[in-house]
Amino acid sequence: FTGDLVIPDSVKDIGFHAFYGCGFDGTLTLPDGLEHIGNGGISYCRRLKGALAIPDSIKRIENNAFEGDESLTSLKLPAGIEYICSGTFRGCKSLTGELVLPESLLVIGDQAFAGTAFTGELKLPSKLISIGQSAFSACKSFNSISGFPETLTHIKDSAFSTCEGLAGELVFPD
User: Fold this and answer.
1) What residues does 5 pair with on adjacent strands?
2) What is the pTM of this model?
3) pLDDT by residue (tens digit) across 68-102?
């Protein structure tokens, strides 16, 4: 396939590996009423490019949903997102700019953002409970973390490994 990938408004669910490895070389448009993106649903579409806007109807993004979509350049997460599962954006190496994590976010899964190129300060949501293993590993362009919320109970192995750009003071809650 080539060109844009436009998911019709009637689609509520994108299943397991539905578009895995497709050759689309344009932009991706997801419908406002989309409720579910399955494991690897739109993964390894290496030539999909431009901004990725995930609709507000999504509360959970499944494992590896966009993994390896290495030409996507920016990300807008839904305001009510609660779970970003493992490997969701792993290897999306062209995702740049500020990563805005909505206040509703509770869990960031293992390797969820590993290898992305987001820049600036990482602001963790006030309700966040868990940061998974290697969640932000190899995110070399973050320069600071705004601090950890009091709700945070888990920071798993290598969560911020090789985040070489981090500098300054890091404050943990009492």
Assistant:
1) 28
2) 0.95
3) 999 999 999 999 999 999 999 999 999 999 999 99
